[in-house]
Design brief:
423 residues, alpha+beta, three-stranded antiparallel beta sheet, 15 strands, 14% strand, elongated
Length: 423
């Protein structure tokens, strides 16, 4: 594919933003010392500029384009340019749109949407309006993809007969698995090898009974299915498809549409990945399935999830600590009763005390109290009963290494080997 890429030097303000965002390092800019700079080295300090096409002055050196054939057509350069000076053949003026950040939802609104999203299986027989289906697909399509491959495709099924075929396929596949697991010849061999799988045998039997009774235990009477698939050769197909699913799921929640992740269907596809794809005319590999429907009601409450488990491995929260002040290099994830982390002696305010609590149930009784008061920082660590902390060698603690003891003639060479030295 031929890439058409150029820079309008008349309007370019040489801010270097295209250099910084290009993942392929196509844009370069000469530094004041004569070296060439690309995305890997960043832009010189002071060359960043607000998103306003202001000024006729040039901020830096001229932008150069190298190896344009390596472009992955992500559009970062065009989206980042404040003056529209990057001319890309795949992104004409009609495909570039200004962003009004004032129209974005607040962080609190986004978080509330994430909290409110649930898999609502109380679905009515009303069809999902086509315009809402279109918005869900648009949101899913906007999800990022590896190397900007944009290989994710969607198959929407609203035909009741096809929906029933999906349920039949899932139940039929599970029934075959159940028959193999209960085979009297195979069971003595498989059960020791797959003990976790045998707990699903009663589940498969229950699903089959409910399906034959017309209760639709697989799709839960969903009126639409979205199959998300990629070419079989795509290495990151599963990741890309599920990123798309989450985008579409949040859009569906905002539209008041129930969405349920079809784990049973995907499990059946793992056993038989081709027959359902042929029935639906899908080429490639199916990675995610979303069931949609108009809910009978919406949840009036959201429920808190379990305590978040976070392990942070970092330097100080922010910039390099001031001289004479040390910071924790490892923030472990522990319960509020287990760990208290204090910072004292802030250079700006000596009375400042910060306390942070973390959660980690597998290290009970571990507590760290750090009182940092300038150069003479002291640490006190309380460990669980019976815990013996590792003591570093003397030379690692800044103490002189003791001279090794000299052996006398006739002394054993090693306590493990009872052999005397020659006399």
């Amino acid at each position: 594919m031929e890439i058409t890429l150029a820079i309008d030097t008349a309007t370019c303000i040489r801010c270097g933003k295209c250099v910084r965002v290009c993942p392929s390092g196509i844009f370069t800019q000469q530094k004041p010392d004569g070296n060439t700079e690309s995305r890997t080295t960043g832009t010189p300090a002071g060359n960043d500029q607000e998103n306003t096409p202001a000024s006729s002055s040039k901020n830096g050196f001229e932008i150069q384009i190298v190896n344009p054939e390596t472009c992955i057509v992500c559009g970062h350069c065009v989206a980042a340019c404040p003056t529209g000076s990057v001319e890309h053949g795949d992104f004409p003026a009609g495909k570039v749109h200004k962003i009004d950040y004032g129209q974005l939802p607040t962080p609190e609104q986004v978080l509330l949407l994430c909290k409110a999203r649930r898999s609502n299986r109380a679905i009515t027989s009303k069809p999902v309006p086509p315009e809402k289906l279109g918005l869900i697909l648009e949101a899913a399509h906007r999800a990022p993809t590896a190397s900007n491959s944009q290989s994710v495709s969607f198959t929407v099924v609203t035909d009741p007969k096809k929906l029933l075929e999906v349920s039949d396929f899932t139940i039929r596949t599970f029934d075959k698995v159940r028959a193999k697991l209960q085979n009297p010849l195979l069971k003595p061999v498989l059960k020791p090898l797959l003990p976790g799988l045998y707990r699903y045998v009663p589940v498969f039997e229950r699903l089959k009974r409910n399906h034959l009774a017309g209760n639709d235990p697989i799709l839960r009477h969903a009126t639409a299915l979205i199959f998300i698939h990629t070419p079989a050769s795509h290495r990151f197909g599963a990741a890309d498809a599920n990123l798309a699913y989450q985008n579409g799921s949040l859009m569906a929640e905002s539209l008041g549409i129930s969405q349920v992740y079809m784990g049973f269907v995907l499990s059946a596809l793992q056993q038989d990945p081709k027959s359902l794809a042929r029935t639906l005319g899908i080429e490639g590999r199916i990675h995610a399935v979303m069931a949609l429907g108009v809910p009978a009601f919406r949840y009036p409450n959201y429920i808190d999830r379990k305590e978040v488990q976070v392990q942070q491995i970092s330097t100080s929260a922010g910039n390099t600590p001031a001289p004479g002040h040390s910071r924790s290099l490892l923030h472990r994830s522990m319960s509020k009763e287990d760990i208290t982390y204090r910072l004292r002696g802030d250079p700006e305010s000596k009375s400042n005390v910060k306390t942070q609590a973390y959660s980690n149930g597998h290290v009970p009784g571990y507590r760290i109290n750090r009182n940092l008061s300038g150069p003479s920082a002291s640490n006190s660590i309380a460990h669980p009963p019976g815990f013996r902390p590792h003591r570093r060698p003397a030379h690692r603690r800044g103490q002189p290494t003791p001279e090794p003891a000299q052996e006398s003639v006739g002394r054993r060479a090693s306590p493990k080997r009872r052999r005397s030295l020659p006399r």
